[in-house]
Here is the input.
Amino acid sequence: MTVRVHLWSGLRRLAGGADAVEVEAATIGQMFDALIALHPGLEPFIKAGVSVAIDGEVTSGGRNIPIAPENEIYLLQRVKGG
Amino acid sequence: MPKDELKGGFRLIGTRPNRPDGLDKVTGRARYGADIVAANMLHAAVVRSPHAHARIKKIDASRALALEGVKAVVTRADFPTGLTGEDWNLQENTIAGDTALYDGHAVAAVAATSALVAQDAARLIEVEYEILPHVTDVDAAMAPDAPVIRAGYADHSVPEGMHPNVVRYIDFGHGDTEAGFAAADLIREHTYKTEATHQGYIEPHACLGQLGADGRGEMWVCTQGHWYIRRMCAAVLGIDAANLRVTPSEIGGGFGGKTTIFMEPLALALSRKAGGRPVKLVMSRAEVLRATGPTASASMDVKIGMKKDGTITAAAVNFRMQGGAFIGMSPVTEALQCAFACYDIPALMHEGYEVLANRPKAAAYRAPGAPMAAFAVESLLDEMCRELALDPLRVRLKNAAKEGTKSSYGPSYNRIGFVETLEAALAHPNLAAPLGPNQGRGVASAFWFNHGGETSVSLAIGEDGTVQVSVGTPDIGGSRASIALMVAERIGIEYDAVRVNVVETGALGVNEPTHGSRATFASGKAAVEAAEQAIAEMCRRAAAEWGIDAEAVEWVDGAACPAGPNAGKFPPMTIAEIGAKMGGTGGPISGHHESVPGGVGASFGTHVVDVEVDPATGKTTVLRYLVVQDAGRAIHPAYVEGQYQGGAAQGIGWALNEEYVYGADGRLQNPVFLDYRIPVASDLPMIDTVIVEVPNPGHPYGVRGVGETGIAPPLPAIANAVAAATGARLRSLPISPPKLLAAMKHK
Amino acid sequence: MTKIHVTTTVNGETAEFLTDPRETLLDVLRNQLGLTGSKEGCGTGDCGACSVLVDGVLVSSCLVLGVEAQGKTIETIEGMADPKGDLHPLQRKFIEHAALQCGFCTPGVLVAAKALLAQNPDPTETEIRYWLAGNLCRCTGYDKIVRAVQDAAAEMRGAA
Here is the structure.
C-alpha cells in the first residue's frame, strides 16, 4: 500500500525538497524503514524520536500502529506536556 | 446516539460531589512528601555550587565526616559512569561532574542523624572551584563571543556555523509566505521577550529513599509520576527499575515541575552508602527556585500579514529559548507548534533555536511553550487589530481554526471548540462592563495539544458491591473525584460506592505522570474500559446462574438484567448480590486496561481581562477576569473551574510579577517567595469562568484535558489590556511597575 | 548542642519536648509532636503554610523558635475539628466549594481564616483577600477560597 507522509520543512531538505513523500507501508514501522531507505538523511531525526499524527491525532509513534493510503500522515517533532 | 453527542441525561457526570480526599486535606491528615518518617531514618543536606559556571577542582569531605552523627557523603564519584543521552543529562543535573553548570547545581550530599547535623556537615564540605565565564541570557548565549558551555553537544539539526551553545534547530511551515505577505494590507514585525518563571508549587520537593547493598530499595516521594521517578533513579544509579518500589505521597502542586528527578537519586545513593538506612531529603524554597526546573526564557520575533478586513494572509516566527545547560529542556518546539494553532492561515513559517545557558535544567510548566508563544503572537495580533480599528475577538473569529482546518503545525483538526469559546466570550456580560480612566480591556486566545500517554488502570468489585479503582496518576486537583464519577456513572452505582486509589509502582503497569492534562482523560478513559470488562464478567456470572446465554444479559443501573422478554424472566441481579457470591461463582471480578489512549481532544481557550494602571506608579491592578475554555465535557465542573482559575492566576503572575533575576555574577537574585512574588489573594479579583462543552469524540464521556491551556492567554491578554489603558505596548515580561512607568513616559 | 526542655499546650493537651535552640516551632510540631498538618513551604515566613495560633495570635510557625513555646497555648490544624471529629464550618465549606486542589496550603489557610472570623465575623471580599494575603495558594487563584470563607462566615453568623 502506498502512503503519503507529510514532512516538516526541516526534513524536506533531506528528502529532495518535497513536502510529502510516498512510500510502501502498512504500519508506522514500515513507513520509517521505507523513509530511511529512500532518504538516508532522515535517519538521525527518526532515530531521535518523532511523533506521527494520523488523521489529526498525535500518536505515540509505535511501530505496530497500522496506516492506510486514506490516512493523513504527518511527522511532527516530539511534544511534551506539563 | 453516540455518547459524545449526548447533551445531558447523566446521573452523576456534571455534578459537584465532595472529593474523596477532602476530609484528609482539611484536617492536616493527608501525607505529603515531607510528612513521613521511617525507623532508623537519616536526614540529608546538599552542597550546591555558588557559581554559575565553575570547574570543580577538589571536594574534601573529611571535616564533615568527622562530625558526630554524619553517616555518609556522596559525590559524583559514587555514581556509575558511561551513561548517555537523557540518562546522562539527568545524572549530570542530579550531581555535577567536572563542572558546576549553574548557581545551585548540586556538588555533594551528606546524610546524618538529624537535619541540623546534616546542614552543619554540608557547610564543612570544602569545594575548590575554578570560576569559568558564564552566560544566562538567551540572546547573549548565541552571540559569537559567548562562553561555550559544552562543546560538541549540538544535535544533527543545527546548521553549520552556529555558536556551540545552539544545540537544536527546528523549522516547519506550509504555503508560500512570500506571496502571503505580498497579499497583506498591513505587515508588522516585532521582537518579544519573556523571562523564566517557576511553577511555584507550595510544596518543596521531598522524598524518603532507602537502597540496600543488594540493589533493592524503595522511595516515598512527592511527584506527578512515580514510574518516571523509578526509571530515572534506576538509570542514574545503575540499578534495576523493578527493584525500586516508588510510592507517591499526596502532592502539593506540580504544574509540570514534578515530572522529573532533581535530588531523588541523592537520597538513594546516601542510603546505600549508609548501610541501607532510610534517608529523608527535603528541599528548602531557595533550593527549589535555584535548582529545580523553572521554565525557559524566550526571545521571539513575530511577523504577521493582515488584510484590512482582518484576514491573516501569512505569518512567520523565529523563537530562541534557553532551557538551562542541557539539551531538550526548552519547549521551543511546542512554542512554535502552538504559535498559530488557533488560526487558519494559508502561509506560515516557523523557525526555532534551543540554546544552552548557565541556568538550572528547565522542566515542563503547564502547556510548555504555549504561554511564551501566545504572548508574542497574540500581542502583535492585538496591535494590528487596533491599527486597523478592528474588534480583536471578531478578527480571531474570522481566522479561527475549525474542524477540518489544516493546523499550523501540520495535521488537520478533528472536532474542536475554538469558535465556541470566542462566541461565548463575545456574549459574556464582562464585555459590556464600562471602563473608566486608566482602565483597559485585553483579550487573547491559546491552544494546547493535550496528551494521552501510557496508562494502566485496574478495577475490582468488592464483596459488598462497592468498587475500587487503582490508578497511577497522582491526584493534584480532584482527579480521584472525576474518575469515581465516571466509573459510578457507567456501572450505575453511587459515587460514594467507588473508591479511587493512587497506587505505587508495584501495583500497576507503567503510567506516565499526571501531565499533559491527561489524568481525567486517560486514567478516566482506562477506568471506564476496565469497568466495561467487569460489567461483562458480572453479566456472565448472572447468565450462568440463570442458565441463559451471556449475550442475553444486559447491564442496567448497577444490575444484570435479562436483555428482553425472550431471555427469560429473572429479577435484576445487583452488583452487591454478584459481589457477595463471586467467591463461589468463579472468583474475584475485576477489570483492567492498559493503553496509550488515542482520541486526545485539542484544547482552546479565550480570556478577557480588564485592568487599571496607576499613572503615578505604573502598578497594574486586575479588575475583572474571564476565562472561557472548551472542556469537552466537565465531569466535575467545580474542579474544571478550579483549573481555569488556577491557570489564569499563574498566567497573571507571569505577566505582572514573576521573573528569574540573575545578577552579573550569574547568581539568582530572588530565590525566596518574598522576592519571587507569586500572586497573593489581594492581587486578584474573582475569576469568572465559562465552561464550553464541545464533546471530544475520542472519550466515552467527551472529556478534553483542561489543566494547561488556561496559563497561556493571560500573558498577552494583560499586555493588551495595559496597552489599551495606557497606550504603552510592553513587549517584554513581566510588566513590572517601573518598566511600565518608563514605557508610559516614552510612548 | 544542649537541648532545652519545653512544656506547652497544643490543641488543648499538655505537650513536653526537648529542643535544640535552633529548631523552629514548626520543626518541633512536625518532627517531635507528629503534627505534620502544618507545612513548610518556604521557611521564611512568606507562604503561610505553617500558620498556627500562639496564645490566639496568628503566626508563621517557621519564624517562631521551639523554645518560645514554653508556657504558651498553641492551636494547629489538627485541633480545628471538634474532638469528636465534627468539622469546623470552614473545613466543611472548603470541601463543598472545591476550595482546595493540591491541599498543601489548605491547613495554613484554614487556620488563618479561622483567626479572621474570630475577630471579624462578617468580612468583605477585600478584607478576606488582604487577611489571607500571607497565605500563598498556587492552585486555585483564590476565587473558591474566598467564596468558602464567605459562606462559612455566613453560616457561623447564622445567616446562611
Remarks:
- Chain A has one domain: 2-77.
- Chain A has a mean pLDDT of 88.
- Strands of chain A lie at 2-6, 20-24, 50-54, 57-59, 73-77.
